[in-house]
Amino acid sequence: MREDGKLDYLELPATDLGATRAFYADAFGWTFQDYGPTYAAFDQGLDGGFDADPAERTRTPLPVLYAHDLEAMLGKVQAA
């Protein structure tokens, strides 16, 4: 079972998806699941993906945190 507040997914920006995939595959042996021409997901101990869509990609890493109860987690975030 996943724990609240733990990193669940990490989305990273990429400007050249082919070069990004090649680098991580060659340097670290990563494998990818492509979701269209501008997104490649990875599962290397942490689920994540590289987004190369200029209209949609984040400009910085986008960490996605797990929450079993979104309303309760929202309350904790607002209180903090």
Notes on the protein architecture:
The protein is an alpha+beta fold. 28% of the residues lie in helices and 30% in strands. The chain contains two helices and five strands; from the N terminus they run E-H-E-E-E-E-H. It has a five-stranded mixed beta sheet, covered by helices on one side.
| Class inferred from helices and paired strands | alpha+beta
Tally of separate helices? 2
Mean pLDDT: 92
Give the overall shape, derived from the CA principal axes.
Answer: elongated
Determine Rg (CA atoms, Å).
Answer: 15 Å
Quaternary structure state of the chains depicted: single chain
**End-to-end Cα distance:** 25 Å
Number of strands: 5
Biggest β-sheet: strands ordered side by side in the sheet: 2-3-4-1-5
- What is the makeup of the main sheet? 5 strands, mixed
Helix content: 25-40%
Low-confidence stretches: none
- In terms of DSSP E residues, the strand content is 25-35%
Give the helices and strands as they follow along the chain: EHEEEEH
